[in-house]
């Protein structure tokens, strides 16, 4: 009865412009989807390398988002551009994830989440996975374990302990 592995789709390039493909992916076991990675897809703009990715979800992105909610596929905002994150916060009716993010109030980079976003994710029952293995999310000068704990404690203070997790993304 324990889940050992969850299939996630990061980037959603496989969906292209056809929201119906999501249903096929769901049947194969995909349960978490991020619509973009660093660049642009037919669904949304990715976080890019700076704060210029400000577009909202595309019309196809909205359709895919609605289908995800219908199917119960969990949305991951970690790689969306700033405009996409705000758009998902407007559209969402159920919990979603930030699988590997951190706190803007501690480390000021565009990829991290502000307190308003953290609270909004928590209000929907979502979880923020602190990107413990991505040094520049944690601290540009001192990416230590103590700084990871600072981010975890900040999410707890802002949203509550039920809304924080570890989201290493990858480990070298």
Descriptive overview:
39% of the residues are buried. The mean pLDDT is 90. The chain has helices spanning 21-27, 59-71, 82-91, 115-123, 135-138, 145-159; strands at 7-10, 30-34, 74-75, 97-101, 127-130, 164-166. The strands form 2 sheets. It has a 3-stranded parallel beta sheet with strand order 1-2-3. A 3-stranded parallel beta sheet has the order 4-5-6, covered by helices on one side. The chain has 6 helices and 6 strands, in the order E-H-E-H-E-H-E-H-E-H-H-E.
> Count the helices. How many?
6
By oligomeric state, this entry counts as single chain
Instruction: Please mark out the parts with pLDDT under 50 across 5 or more consecutive residues, or reply none.
Output: none
Q: In percent, how helical is the residue content? A: 25-40%
Profile the largest sheet: 3 strands, parallel
Q: Which strand order spans the largest sheet, edge to edge or round the barrel?
A: 1-2-3
Q: Helix/strand/pairing class, anyone?
A: alpha/beta
Span from first to last CA?
31 Å
- Cα-atom Rg, whole angstroms? 15 Å
Number of DSSP E strands: 6
Outline type: globular
Strand content: 5-15%
Task: Provide mean pLDDT, rounded.
Answer: 90
Helices and strands, in order, run as: EHEHEHEHEHHE
Brief summary of the model shown:
By secondary structure, the chain is α/β, with parallel strands linked by helices. The chain has helices at residues 21-27, 59-71, 82-91, 115-123, 135-138, 145-159, and strands at residues 7-10, 30-34, 74-75, 97-101, 127-130, 164-166.
